[in-house]
Every structure is written in structure tokens, then in C-alpha cells.
Amino acid sequence: MNDPSPLTNKVLILGAPRTGFALLLNILGELWRVPFENESSTQRTVNILLHPLGECLYTAILQFFQRHYPAEDVIFNQTFRSLLGGPRWLDPQNTDNACVRKYIGVKDVGDMTLNIYLPKHTLFYHDRVHSHYYPKTWVNDTEFSRLIKFASMRNPFGTLYSVAHSINAITGEYINRHLGGREADLRVKFAKFRLSDIELVDGLVKHLISYLKEFSAVKNHFHTVKWEDIIQKPAETIHGIAVARGVDMDKTAAQAIWDKIGYKNLTGDHGYNFKKDRTKGSVDDWKNYLTNQHLELFRDHGVEEFLEAFGYDKLRLIDKGKYTPFQQEVSSALDSGRQITDGLEDKNLQIFNWNKSNVTVTSHEFKRFEKLSYSVIERASYKDLEILEQFAAYIDQVMAGINDIIDTAYRHFSETEPDYAAWKGVCREFSRDHRAFFSDFGTDIAQLFDQKMSIIESICKP
User: Are 223 and 150 in contact (CB under 8 A)?
Assistant: First the structure.
């Protein structure tokens, strides 16, 4: 297997959620990873600093809520612990900013999505820059547009089916902590809950169609990989990805990659992202769960254009006489205007697993906050609004400090590399000026900062 040329070091991966995005991301990771040493000294410095900075934000969030609620009731999955942990994108309003979404919940109180803003170059922390949002913004950006670009794609009906059965990270954390980790048949209950809420489905469909519309306008910039192809012909598809990536490999090696990652959880601490005991995928699962009411929403929002564009079968309504018991129950609930909540009497499950992202605005009640300088509470279903307002102000102050440190690092270190004497002086000055910020979050984090600065100081050592 040959390494790609230096001009193809990094890749950009786009894809709507539940479209084989994690599969594509991991396949590309198995093909080739950019060595840490290939980064500029300044970028390596920022990459190293992101670890203690992430610990600062993680600690700030936990400490704030644990001052108001029992520690075991504060639900914050490890997926979001790192600074860049969570869905991320370039801010279309200001592409100098990267946005990262965090999900935070409190048992019996509610939850929220928190978006934080960072300098966009922090996204180069990843050798595979990846996002679910704004294809045009990435293509139009001067720097990111130069990366080799891949995109995941899935039949829109299959995407909705997968979304309906999904368990997000915060719900998975709640299940582990308060339900003994027993998933049981929760996925089916969540699917009935979601699919019997026609306004929610409408919001999900609108959001997906909006993405497909924007992606279609720039699709020629991407090597598009269909989830169905990965599932049905993995070795051939992985080989095609390798060719597009500039990696020389045969189909035997491609099959070995699939044998390693196929039908496994690929999202780390978000252990519920993948259905347990799944040994094979079916491209037609959705036909046993979606009803004509759902398909008609897709049709009303123009899905047929995209089915044709990406090589999927035309929309055909389902013979109601062949509905499965699941479809019969959901269809009946939709006809009567009743949302199915059976088995979800624990309201935390309903609140935590409601789709607060990847859905257009609906009439469902959420508290929305104004964007502050470095953060915004995007949507919240939360009882204690006074506490939430205090949190919004506090976390923006924390993010102001984090952004200042990152901006200073980019500015000061880039002025001195590769002069080691000057670099060493900047390191000492940087440590002196910023250590107090890390100390505010505890001795352990201050010591972690010291350790990282020792590594940074050695970067330019001759």
C-alpha cells in the first residue's frame, strides 16, 4: 500500500447523518492517516493544546450543572469531551469560524444543544475533516476546497428509517446510567414514537431534502460513496475509495478492511450508534417501517429529483394490504393524530432522544437563545430557565478564554517557527500568560497543560 503524495494529505468528508457517514470516515482512516509530523509546527502546537482546552470546557460544563443537580443526573456523554467532540461545520455566516455542537441533559429537568465557536483552522486537527452540513460552504472555502472530497449517500427513505430507530449519545448515556444499560426493544419504541409524529417527520424530511439540494449543486466536487454499495459489495467499493484517495491496494486488502470494521460500532463512546448483534445490512429495511404518509411527505418536498440523480428507484407507494404490524400501528396513529409513546413513559427518554438537530423548525416547544460571542444554546427543552441563562453567560466566558488561547497560539508560534531559540522563548511566555486559565479548572488540568507545553517546546528542537 503506497502513501499518497503530500498534496493529498488530508480529505474532506461530507454526508447527512445516517447515510453511511461513519463507515466512510473509518474506511478512509484505514486506508491512510496523515502523520502528525506532516503538520506545520504551529498546527501541531494547536492540536496539542486542544486536549487540555477540551478538558477545561468539559470540566466547566460538569461543574456548573453539578452545583445545581446531583452528579449522577447530569448527562454528558464522553463523545463530547474533546473540544471538537460533536457534530462540526464551517459557519456559513462567518467561515473563519468552526462550529461544534454539544448535547447536555439533566435527568427530570431537560436537555439542550450547545454550539461553540472556534477558529476554523482547529478543524485541521483531523486528517479527515468531516461534517454533516453546508456542502457549498466547504467547497467555496479557499483552504478546505483544496482537500480531496468524499461524500456519503443513502436512499432518503433508508435514511429516515435509520434516523427513526436511532439512539443518540445523550440517550445512550442515560440508558447506561439509569436503566442498567438495557436497550431491549427501545429502538422500535423510539421508531414508533418518531414516525407517528407527522410534524417531526416533516421537519426531518425537509432538513434532508435541503441538504440534498445543496449537495447536488456541488456534487461534482466529491467522490460520492453510496451506503448501499458498501453494504452489498464492500471490497469493490472500498477499492474504489482507495483509488480516489490515491492509495494503491488490491481487492484482497480492501476485503480485509471490511472484515475489520464491518458491522461494528465505529463511534467510540457513543456505543448506541450501532444496532447490537447486527450481522448484515438490508437496503430495503425501510419498506417494512415507513408508511405511505411518510412517502407522500417525501414526494411533496421533491425527493423524486434526488432519487433519480443518485441512482435510486422511483418513489412507489406501498400496498396497504401488505403493511407489516408496525406499519399498521403507525399508520393508524397518524390517521388519528395520536403519537405512540407506549414503553416510553419515562419522559427523559422522550426528551433526550427527540431530534433537536437535523430537523427544520417545527412548532414543538423549545427555548432558543441569542448567539453570544463564542457560543449559543441552539435549542433547549429545560425547566429551569434561570439556571440555563446563567449557564449560557458562563460558558461564553469560558469559550472567550479558549478562543483567546487558540488565537494567540496561531499568531505567536507562527511568527517564530522554525527558530528554536525564539520558539522556546514564546513557549515560556505562553505558559506564563495562560497557565492561570487552566488552573481555574483544577490542578490536574494545570499539570496537563504543563505536560503539553513541554512537548510543544520540543517541537522545533534541532
Answer: yes
